[in-house]
Write the structure tokens for this entry.
Amino acid sequence: MNQWIKRFGQVMLSLLVGILVLSSGAGLIYAKSCKKLEAIKWTEEDIKINSSISSDHGIEMLYQGYFEQEISVGEETRTAKVYIPEGSDQGSYFVVLTVPDGMKTETFLQKSGWVDKADKEDFCLFVMEPKGGKGKWGTVEEEAEYVKAAYAALVAGKYYLPFPTFYLVGYGTGGTALQKYAMTNAITVAGAAFINASDIDSSYLEEMAETKYAKSDIAYSEV
């Protein structure tokens, strides 16, 4: 139990740091060391399985490293990136990120410091990205189905076993779409921060205030 409490505190601290990483007008904070990131396409045939036991007697994630996961959105195939530090235990916490507008995924991960922080503090990253990973998101409405499908893929944990709740750090257009989705699925959110991602119209907020969770009088907007 003490181990989980310690990790909870570590990840909450990471969220606070994330707010500062790409805050409005502050520019980009560069990590002291940036490893080269090359995503492995995520298929059972291409990945070496690791089933070792870690030093604290936890079972390690079967897959460790930097991967590309396919996300089915209707008839279209999109992608998300997953980073699992070496030695991560099954059930490790995940931080869900959206790539900022105008940035390539790997450039963002390397220069923001998220990879270094994940290595140091032992949490994993699930990164939602624009189509093609080249920094150009569609509108918030156009990205809604992608965010929904990507989040569902994370929860399903086909290639890994995540903790049942997630920390969210959303940037820009993708972050706005993630924030709107999180408002309807708060039960899976442990904590969240959004940067330049609060362009949510009043009609949607009113809808959230009028929509209640099943078998309760609690509105989505109250959680």
